[in-house]
Write a structure and sequence with these properties.
With about 220 residues, the chain is an alpha+beta fold. It is built from eight helices and ten strands. Strand 7 and strand 8 form a beta hairpin. It is globular.
Length: about 220
């Protein structure tokens, strides 16, 4: 089953279209950081001798500084996660998360300072979500709740999905869904907390949205493994 899921896992690509690679320097940089400060800024948990625990969606991932790998706990055992994009995003978040908290102000991608980045080949992954859930509102709800999404009183269905606990790489995504009918086609928006750009660059925001969208489309967080 796990091999099948791995074979179905979407191939991670960088904004340039190349396969995602994790720079070894990122792991070295993390090793040299004050782990207490990193945990305080990123809302991670120190895991003595190994590294730290980082919440992602409804999981607590082990970011192991010794082996330079990510792990997920399954039935009491730590299983290695082979997902370069997730690994890269976790490291980028941990290295860049600052002390600023959530602003609690939702903004669209057009309101970001880096809005110009999210055009053409860098559009947020919305169309595939609509293709999957445009006529399946209940399926969308199940998928969002399956990754720990918190229902919001907006649109026909809306969820606050906490990709990472803060805003940078710990930022919540708000998925607003309007179902279609004979007069209106379904639409989907992805909103961010205003503080997201304090912690994440445009390419990291793009990668994180792609990753969460893939999980929602597959309807199973095990797609990350």
């Amino acid at each position: 089953m796990q091999e099948r899921r791995r074979s179905e896992k979407p191939a991670a690509r960088s904004p340039s279209g190349d396969a995602v690679k994790v720079p070894a320097q990122y792991w070295k940089d993390l090793e040299q950081r004050d782990i207490r400060e990193v945990c305080e800024n990123a809302f991670a948990i120190n895991h003595p001798s190994d590294g730290l625990l980082l919440p992602f969606l409804k999981e607590n991932l082990l970011v192991d500084k010794r082996t330079h790998c990510l792990y997920r706990q399954v039935q009491g055992q730590w299983d290695r996660i082979d997902n370069p994009l997730l690994e890269l995003l976790c490291l980028v978040y941990l290295l860049n998360a600052g002390a600023q908290s959530l602003s609690q102000e939702m903004v669209s991608v057009q309101e970001l300072k880096s809005a110009h980045f999210f055009k053409g080949t860098h559009e947020l992954k919305i169309r595939p979500l609509l293709a999957r859930y445009g006529n399946d509102l209940e399926g969308f709800k199940r998928a969002a709740e399956g990754v720990g999404g918190e229902a919001l009183d907006l649109a026909d269905a809306a969820y606050r999905v906490l990709a990472f606990p803060k805003v940078p790489l710990y930022y919540p995504l708000y998925y607003l869904f309007w179902k279609g009918d004979q007069e209106f086609v379904p639409s989907l928006s992805i909103l961010f907390d205003r503080s997201v750009e304090v912690h994440l660059a445009a390419d990291a925001i793009w990668g994180l949205v792609n990753l969460v969208s893939d999980v929602l489309i597959m309807g199973d967080s095990n797609v990350l493994l």
